[in-house]
Structures are given as structure tokens and as C-alpha cells.
Amino acid sequence: MNIKLLTYQLIVGLYLFTFLFGCQSTQEKAGYTRYSDDKNHFSIALPSDWQVRQNRNGVAIAGIIPKSENKPAKEGIIILAQKIPTNSRNRELGEYYKSSLKLLKRTLTNFSLVESKSAKIDGVEAYRFIARYKFGNTELQGLFYVFIHDNLGYGISCSAFPENFAKHEKMFAQIVKNFRFESRP
Fold first, then answer.
1. DSSP summary character for residue 22
2. Residue 106 DSSP label
3. The predicted structure's pLDDT at residue 1
4. Residue of 126, 93, 106 lying closest to 7 (CA atoms)
5. Which residues, including other chains, have CB under 8 Å from residue 58's CB and lie 6 or more apart?
6. How many angstroms separate the Cα of 140 from the Cα of each of 8, 82, 168, 180?
7. pLDDT digits (tens, 9 = 90+) for 43-64
8. Which is it for the CA torsion 124, 130, 133, 135, positive or negative?
9. CA pair distance 55, 49, nearest whole angstrom
10. Nearest CA to 3 among 43, 46, 58, 55?
């Protein structure tokens, strides 16, 4: 797999909120449920009232905000992970970030970077960025994170309709804060 495939999966994931595979979950703090992805060695707590899907078409975990408008794209979060080959130049976080942006700009209509800065995900260096874009005929604004851990490249996309982004942004950031790497067997 490469960054193009990861980004493609992220984009496809925007449409693939209609599937349901068994999610491994445990109860988290009140109002949240923690979902684990054993294949990609992470877990994340999502609001308990969200519709959650797991392990379909390259999307590790996807969560949909309840009462998301009836549009082709839904508001919510998608988490992707991919193995990064040892000979890939994308093993460096800066290159992984640049490749992600380049592919998003080519794939999403009217992609516009609003802000970008460094961040940490469970103690690991990451890039965090906000962008506006059009997916099909639907305008969206997203909070994205890209990072690398144990030869896996991760992408988290938190998307909302532009008119709802400000009210969801803090919640998205809190959800991403509870992302945890799980030890490998």
C-alpha cells in the first residue's frame, strides 16, 4: 500500500458509512464506548450514540454523528491505517504529510488548506490540518491528522458540513485525544 491508496481509502470512506461489521468495544467514560482495532493496534473512544462501522474497504473504524443530514457524505470520523514499506520515502512524517496533501488536492474538488500545524497523537508526532473541500456535490470541512507509528501510517479524518464544523471541532479534537496505540501480541 502507499499514500495514494491510503488517501483513496480516506475519500472512499466518506461514502462508506452504510456498512456494519462487528466492532470490538468496551465501555469507556460515561457516554463513550472504546473501539479496538487489533489488526492496526489502536483503540479510540467514540460517543455511544454514534453509529460505528469497522474493517470495511480499508476503513479501520468509522463513526457517524447521529442525525447527520441526508446527504451522500455524512458527518463523522474515519480512521485508516496502512503498512508503510521499508523502502518508501513516506516513512518520514514530513513526506507522508506532503504526499497526503498532494493526493487530497488532486482527488477532492476545491480542496483548500485552512491551517496546518504539528500535533501529538498518544505521544507520537503528527500533522494536524483543517481543510475545506467538496466531495461529490457536498461541501465539507475537515480536521485531519496524519502520523506514523511502528511502520504503520495512520490518517484520521473528522468531517462536518461547513455550517456545523465550528460546533463539532472541539468534540472531534477530544475524540482524537483519546486515540491510543495498543501493544502488539
1. P
2. H
3. 46
4. 106
5. 5, 6, 9, 12, 13, 80, 82
6. 17, 24, 12, 27
7. 999 999 999 999 888 899 999 9
8. positive
9. 19
10. 58
Asked if 14 and 6 touch (Cβ cutoff 8 Å), the reply is no
DSSP string for 56-91: ETTEEEEEE-TT--SSSS-SEEEEEEEEPPTT-GGG
Q: In terms of Cα–Cα distance, which of 108, 109, 103 is closest to 2?
A: 103
Cell of 176: 482524537
Residue type, 54: Q
CA angle 170, 171, 177 (to 5 degrees): 90
Asked whether the beta carbons of 118 and 125 are under 8 A apart, the reply is yes
